[in-house]
UniProtKB/TrEMBL annotation:
Residues annotated with N6-(pyridoxal phosphate)lysine modification: K56
Family: Belongs to the Orn/Lys/Arg decarboxylase class-II family.
All copies of domain Orn/DAP/Arg decarboxylase 2 N-terminal, residue ranges: 48-282
Provenance organism: Parafannyhessea umbonata
Orn/DAP/Arg decarboxylase 2 C-terminal domain: residues covered: 24-372
Name recorded for this polypeptide: Diaminopimelate decarboxylase
CDD domains registered for this protein in UniProt: PLPDE_III_DapDC
Pfam family, one: Orn_DAP_Arg_deC
This protein's record includes keyword ATP-binding: no
Keyword Lyase belongs to the record: yes
Catalytic residues identified in the record: C345 (proton donor)
An annotated Gene Ontology molecular function: diaminopimelate decarboxylase activity
Amino acid sequence: MERKRPFASRERLESIATRYPTPFYLYDEKGLRANLERILRAFSWNPGFRQFFAVKATPNPALIQIMREYGCGVDCSSLTELMLAEAMGISGEDIMFSSNDTPLDEFAHAHRLGAIVNLDDITHIDSFAEAIEGEALPDTMSLRFNPGGDFSFANGIFGRPEDAKFGLMEPQMLEAARRLASMGVRNVGIHALLASNTLTNEYYPALARRLFELAVRLRAEAGVRVPFVNLSGGVGIAYRPEEEPNDIEAIGAGVRRAFDEVLVPAGMGDVAIFTEMGRFVTGPYGALVTRVIHRKSTYHDYLGVDACAANLMRPMLYGAYHHITVMGKEDEPATHAYDVTGMLCENSDRLASDRALPEVEVGDLLFVHDAGAHGHSMGYNYNGRLRSAELLLQADGGVRCIRRAERPSDYFATLDVLPIAPKLGVKPAASSAARPKPARP
Ligand SMILES: *Cc1c(COP(=O)(O)O)cnc(C)c1O
């Protein structure tokens, strides 16, 4: 199996670091584009196929703009994600609004943009109707399905939907579809996300088969047209070098088999396949680049780096593995075991524990792989730590800053209501009511 290789050389990273101090996120435009092409090719058998990028994974307009060139839409789940889409000129059925526990003003905002609204519960039909204040429901809506039990396949259990807060049960799907139809909705799409970061080519095909069967039932028993089946996200990536990456071509072919066996015989060969992949689209094409600033030996050998969980939370939150390459030492044997830590006052703040690496010196650059999704976007400001810049390594080899690093004044910005604000480099608010919620439609 191939070892993980960084998508930039040490020399390139050092030259970038002279302009943009570490830590920073770096995204690989070339890799992202090639991946988008593979995804579209894998589903090209389905004329209506669309990928809606899960904005929460990497909410950067420069990256989303690249996906737009390939005809991708966006999957939003919050007001600010909708605002980002709107600012990019994205509207209508290019937006899937897959939210849960949805504030009513967010339903209203999504509706005003013409988004396809994916309801997470049967009671949300009334919530949505209330939110749009008596306006007619859209022609096309979507329902999120939760089959309960375990979602398993021949070679193992993928997840336990029964314990997930998301979605409607099967009888509720039927009842909701009938209700929507009675309220003038002609097209009811279906959606489900039953497992996260799956590393098998069987997840999407098994999910698709289940949803296709439900689609046939919805049409027969609720009398609605099912325009699309949305397989959502959950397609994983190989975080560990010994893992076998998913093969999107095999995944597309597996979905096609289920489509041909279930939908086509039912006369539903016109159903479009939708996806909302986040991790699989950008994950491998983003890295966190950080520098070793301390070496400490006590009961363990520690590398102190200039990034922390505020920059990449996944290891702290889920014990997630992110492969680390010591730049310039790619081919040296891993003779040492280090805990790679950040500077938060939390012992769990580490990018890796007991990680086998070559001997590392202060000043070495570390390339933290597969941080391109649910990486920067999960960042937070504990301990007053600031989120890093995001840089794009362009296909032409140049580097473009696509989000600057946070500054102390960003951190202090919400104290603008206090007299101390100017001393913190923050412009005071005109009045304490000066920060209204974004305008309601
Ligand atoms: C998080 C999420 C996704 C994306 O999941 P990935 O695992 O990143 O592909 C898609 N749809 C919904 C509704 C989500 O919540």
